[in-house]
């Protein structure tokens, strides 16, 4: 039995995973802002001594290097992790071996091992949420790059002038969809699901916003094809569970009038796993990397 932990900005999720990668038990608690890293890791590990497990796989936000050092800040409730070594902090509190992977890379690794990227020699994972989570894999697994930033799609640079950049997350995330819609009307929606509901009901402004947004997503997918040319790109996030969304992305992507689309064979799929992908990926990665 392995313990999986998914550290998020809102919740910390836990799950016990058996040898067949089935979730046996899962629970969660709010991510609480702590003043020090010791308070945070004490809170993270509190109560874990009550469960039986062999080792721990952790999915965590931010840039994480191959030694589990957190190199960048993430959401406010977990930013105290920056500058810490996750494996060391959790291991000394649980006396268990620990393996940590960036959250989007964990989701991608789950799909690579047991999802819609299984058996591919090259794949990319594009997780649409508040930002854009990213992961790229070859036939051996996750490609991290020198500092763990390979596959970070949110900060892909679109423009740079006078010391200020425009980044991909600002045009293709769920947050971007809300901004696109609100820029077209005096209405002020707070959730991407509201825009999607209006779209499905034929609202003209929502239809324009969704089409603009999906065009932006396709820009990202095209750039992934140019720098990596994978067999498949799997779309993740809650929106990827919607058939209409996957169909629209495929339609718009395949009809792009840009270089090499006439010979592009990259498939666009949805991620097979959604809610449990981060935890499953973290555990699968731990199984492969903990001696």
UniProtKB/TrEMBL annotation:
Q: Which InterPro entries match?
A: ATPase_NBD, ROK
What would you give as a GO molecular function for this chain, any one?
beta-glucoside kinase activity
Does Transferase count among this protein's keywords? yes
* Leading EC class: transferase
Q: Which UniProt keywords apply?
A: Kinase, Transferase
**SUPFAM superfamilies noted in UniProt:** Actin-like ATPase domain (SSF53067)
EC number(s) reported in the record: 2.7.1.85
Q: Tell me the protein family, please.
A: Belongs to the ROK (NagC/XylR) family.
What is the name listed in the Swiss-Prot or TrEMBL entry for this protein? Sugar kinase
Q: Which organism is it from?
A: Clostridium disporicum
List the lineage, top down.
Answer: Bacteria, Bacillati, Bacillota, Clostridia, Eubacteriales
């Amino acid at each position: 039995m392995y313990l999986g932990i998914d550290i998020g900005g809102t919740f910390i999720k836990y799950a016990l995973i058996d040898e067949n990668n089935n979730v046996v038990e899962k629970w969660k608690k709010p991510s609480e802002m702590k003043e020090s890293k010791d308070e945070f890791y004490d809170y993270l590990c509190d109560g874990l001594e009550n469960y039986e497990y062999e080792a721990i796989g952790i999915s965590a936000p931010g840039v994480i290097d191959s030694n589990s050092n957190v190199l960048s800040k993430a959401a406010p409730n977990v930013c105290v992790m920056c500058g810490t070594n996750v494996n060391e902090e959790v291991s000394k509190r649980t006396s268990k071996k620990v393996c940590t992977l960036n959250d989007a890379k964990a989701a991608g690794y789950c799909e690579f091992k047991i999802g819609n990227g299984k058996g591919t020699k090259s794949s990319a994972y594009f997780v649409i949420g508040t930002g854009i989570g990213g992961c790229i894999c070859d036939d051996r697994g996750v490609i991290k790059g020198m500092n763990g930033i390979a596959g970070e799609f949110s900060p892909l640079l679109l423009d740079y002038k006078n010391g200020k950049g425009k980044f991909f997350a600002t045009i293709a995330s769920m947050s971007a969809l809300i901004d696109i819609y609100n820029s077209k009307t005096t209405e002020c929606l707070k959730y991407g699901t509201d825009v999607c509901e209006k779209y499905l009901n034929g609202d003209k402004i929502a239809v324009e916003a969704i089409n603009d947004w999906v065009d932006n997503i396709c820009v990202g997918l095209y750039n992934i094809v140019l720098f990596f040319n994978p067999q498949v790109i799997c779309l993740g996030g809650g929106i990827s569970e919607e058939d209409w969304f996957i169909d629209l992305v495929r339609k718009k992507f395949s009809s792009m009038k840009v270089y090499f689309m006439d010979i592009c064979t990259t498939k666009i799929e949805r991620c097979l796993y959604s809610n449990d992908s981060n935890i499953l990926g973290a555990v699968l990665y731990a199984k492969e990397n903990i001696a």
